[in-house]
């Protein structure tokens, strides 16, 4: 495919008339994804759970220039199922189409959820934000995505940013909420273990969703953004050393957004839709096998059913 050559500035088509949402977008990869889509003409909603940080990000983008596109703030707190649903409902009140949903889960292993303390009903914050909140947000918006996909010349896509960390868990199951609540307190790096399980849930969710949307033209893709130099460095042990290593070895957030941009809007994806439905991508645009457990339909179904049952218990 494009491998190292893809550049959204050159390789994306005109996105005028398209509407997109990118969650977790006030910094880093999400921010750069918003910028690239807007500069191709899309109307992009920058999802942020902080109004202050979200407004600052929108203002910064506007100052940098978004070309023919438009960037708007969407308050989007995925920290509880109810707030995730409310965010989706706010969008439905103001828009009549949605072409691209970029779900960039925002709970990171080193910047968030250091303790594993439960967010709600005993579920860890990592799993709540990265999976449950994302699931509810997507579910709320799904009817509009389907409606948009039925329009002439439509190209609706759902992109879930996961990580190669999803390959670490080997023997988890999601037949009940136990894994949602597992703090991995005895592991050497508990937060990394929780993060890896939540990233596995992202891939399982994307794959299950693609199967459920088999009768539609919607393309669901999960992906690894690559190892990216973000503000995370300042929160690592020995931040000066970590910052230098990130500067020397890691991609910039702008480059880190390339794989997300490819999945969200590359014409090559729509031209080979059957090839890209339900795949896992590594930078840039390269299809690889996700972890074996992520490809098991019974595990996908267990995760989906357990999540649905939990949300139903909340009357959502």
UniProtKB/TrEMBL annotation:
Keyword Oxidoreductase included in the entry's annotation: yes
SUPFAM superfamilies (UniProt xref): NAD(P)-binding Rossmann-fold domains (SSF51735)
Species per Swiss-Prot/TrEMBL record: Gymnopilus dilepis
Keywords per UniProt: Oxidoreductase
Protein name (record): NAD(P)-binding protein
Superkingdom classification of source: Eukaryota
MF terms (GO), sorted A to Z: oxidoreductase activity
Record-linked Pfam families: adh_short
Cited PANTHER family: PHOSPHATIDYLINOSITOL-GLYCAN BIOSYNTHESIS CLASS F PROTEIN, PHOSPHATIDYLINOSITOL-GLYCAN BIOSYNTHESIS CLASS F PROTEIN-RELATED
Transmembrane domains' residue ranges: none
InterPro entries, per database record: NAD(P)-bd_dom_sf (IPR036291), SDR_fam (IPR002347)
